[in-house]
UniProtKB/TrEMBL annotation:
It comes from Agromyces sp. G08B096. One of its GO terms (biological process) is recombinational repair. The keyword Isomerase applies. Belongs to the helicase family. UvrD subfamily. Transmembrane segments: none annotated. This is DNA 3'-5' helicase.
């Protein structure tokens, strides 16, 4: 591709995105608010750099934090003609380097990486002669992870322990004994955990000049997405990858820092200009996702907070046509609904969603966002009782479902036989043999859930280019499974606010907005409450056209009354006089 071919890569960008895309050979910091097209900006920037000859595609590393986000980057870069560019998570990039350099530096194959700490921690507790339950072991694992990503030595962590709080009912000595036994077992069995991968790779680069030279020769340009989520361990590794070079572009939004509990910090994003005084700083504040009332609600919540961007609703968001009946894609002011208790709230939300589906909305266009996983069962049950198909995000990965594994196995086996039939017929014949039909079964339940899974595979045929062979289709299924690129299911999504990060829906129901849930009861101190505020901001900005908020005065079986979330008072949304579909009337309340 010649430089003349590069201009179309900039044509579809707005003025601010274009500034970011054209600043190729200098430090760049893109402060990108929710829905402002940050992924578009950085992928076009990379593709433009490749097309213009400024970048060798084999010497660029695009980094992000989840396998799904990395897969999306790779897909977009491939479409833009930059498919040779590496797009990986920090851990995947470090693991690849560890596997390459360990035999050269240490000798022999690299240690095996633990995919789950729980079993080894249980054995460590036995070695330390400490009785402990599974929940406490999960908290011990979180403490191990936090200590390592904060780059604290065991002695430094021990000094910080009183302010951290000790998991469960353990004493400090018991907790530290389990941690020490865990590390001993890991060393004895030649194992590393995920945090070790970052630390050991950084150690190799730092102490072995030949490794540092080879790494820095391989990758010269770095792009880091979601930079507000970087931890000290990841930042240290990034700095070692860079060496004394300055070819770095970072993208992030301090208002979406929601993983501080796991060691993430927005300090590197907000301090980028101090680190690189000559950096190009670009602010993306034109929101292309959400309607103006939703954007205004998000702005009110974050007004005056450190690093908060002032979003502006793009005209295109309101004018962009969407398929479906007019009633289904109508725009409404955000509403706040109050219910007497959690069960009534769940049923009320389910009734509202059923009403929207009857108006022509599609179930996959609607999400119910919750604060903690324990809320999911109530909403799953209420939606099923209302006859609404539902999926709980994070409950089980799509390609891990037994019926999906079975279908993929049969499809791959059948694809070995050359077929002259159209792709859809080949796929549907296999799926019909597993019980799929063109029409869904009546009612909710396990049969409907199985049909939804098989139907999602059938619908993937519509997403592939014309002429795709049966064998190529099954190869794509395997690639999707490996990258966790799940298909869209025809069901309402129930998801925690953390798992909703990076996603969006035309309609969002943000529920459980009471003190003790959002902010969560254990959020003590200004920093912890600010993190809860950012979680609510993430929830609000997932909505494109409609946003409904709700809270309940009582928990199930509780006599004590809750208070509405303190954040609601800042939004100025009035509670309607009553809920619908026969739910008990809610008290009118002015929240702002």
């Amino acid at each position: 591709m010649t430089p003349a071919d590069a201009d179309p890569l900039l044509a579809g960008l707005d003025d601010e995105q274009r500034v970011a895309a054209e600043a190729l050979l200098r430090p760049v910091c893109v402060l990108a608010g929710a829905g402002t097209g940050k992924t578009r900006a950085i992928t076009h920037r990379i593709a433009y750099g490749v097309a213009s000859g400024a970048y060798d595609p084999k010497r660029i590393m695009a980094l992000t934090f989840t396998a799904r986000a990395a897969a999306e980057l790779r897909g977009r870069l491939h479409t833009l003609g930059a498919g040779q560019v590496q797009a990986r998570t920090f851990h995947a990039a470090a693991l690849a380097q560890l596997g390459h350099f360990w035999p050269l530096v240490v000798g022999g194959p690299a240690p095996r990486v633990l995919d789950f700490k729980g079993r080894l921690l249980g054995q460590a507790a036995e070695r330390a002669k400490v009785r402990v339950d599974t929940a406490t072991l999960r908290d011990v694992a979180a403490e191990i992870e936090w200590r390592k990503v904060q780059l604290l030595s065991p002695a430094e962590y021990e000094q910080r322990l009183p302010s951290r709080g000790i998991p469960g009912q353990l004493s400090a000595e018991q907790h530290l004994a389990i941690v020490a036994a865990y590390e001993q077992l890991k060393d004895e069995r030649r194992m590393l955990d995920f945090e070790d991968v970052l630390l050991v790779t950084a150690g190799m680069i730092e102490t072995e000049p030949a490794v540092a030279m080879q790494v820095r020769e391989q990758y010269r340009h770095f792009v880091v997405d979601e930079y507000q989520d970087v931890s000290p361990a990841q930042q240290r590794l990034l700095e070692l990858w860079l060496g004394d070079r300055r070819d770095l572009c970072v993208v992030g939004d301090a208002s979406q820092t929601i993983y501080s509990f796991a060691g993430a910090t927005s300090e590197y994003l907000l301090g980028f200009e101090r680190t690189y005084p000559d950096a190009t700083i670009v602010r993306l504040e034109r929101n292309y996702r959400s309607e103006p009332p939703i954007v205004e609600t998000a702005n009110r919540l974050m007004r005056g907070r450190a690093g908060a961007l002032r979003l502006r609703a793009a005209v295109a968001a309101a004018d962009a046509p969407e398929p479906g009946p007019t009633a289904a894609r109508s725009v409404a002011e955000p509403e706040l609904r109050e219910y007497p208790d959690d069960l009534t709230e769940a049923r009320g939300v389910a009734a509202r969603i059923r009403e929207r589906l009857r108006a022509g909305a599609k179930p996959e266009e609607i999400a119910v966002l919750i604060r903690v996983n324990s809320q999911s069962a109530l909403y799953e049950q209420a939606l099923e009782e209302a006859g609404v198909p539902v999926r709980v995000r994070g409950a089980q990965r799509f390609f891990d479902r037994p019926e999906v594994k079975e279908a993929v196995h049969h499809l791959r086996a059948q694809a070995l036989v050359p077929a002259e039939e159209p792709l859809f017929k080949s796929v549907s014949d296999v799926l019909r043999g597993l019980g799929w039909s063109a029409q869904p079964p009546a009612g909710p339940g396990a049969v409907r859930a199985r049909w939804e899974s098989l139907n999602a595979i059938a619908r993937l045929v519509d997403d592939v280019p014309p002429g795709t062979t049966f064998r190529a289709f099954t190869d794509q299924l395997r690639a999707r499974a490996e990258s966790h690129h799940e298909p869209t299911l025809e069901a309402v999504t129930v998801a925690t606010l953390h798992s909703a990060k990076g996603l969006e829906w035309p309609e969002v129901h943000l529920v459980g907005l009471s003190e003790g849930l959002l902010p969560i009861a254990y959020a003590k101190g200004l920093e912890a409450v600010d993190e809860e505020r950012r979680l609510m901001y993430v929830g609000i900005t997932r909505a494109r056209r409609r946003l409904e908020l709700s809270w309940a005065r009582q928990a199930g079986g509780s006599r004590g009354e809750r208070e509405p979330s303190r954040f609601l008072r800042e939004l100025g949304i009035r509670t309607p006089d009553a809920t619908r579909d026969g739910a008990p009337a809610a008290r009118p309340r002015r929240t702002g």
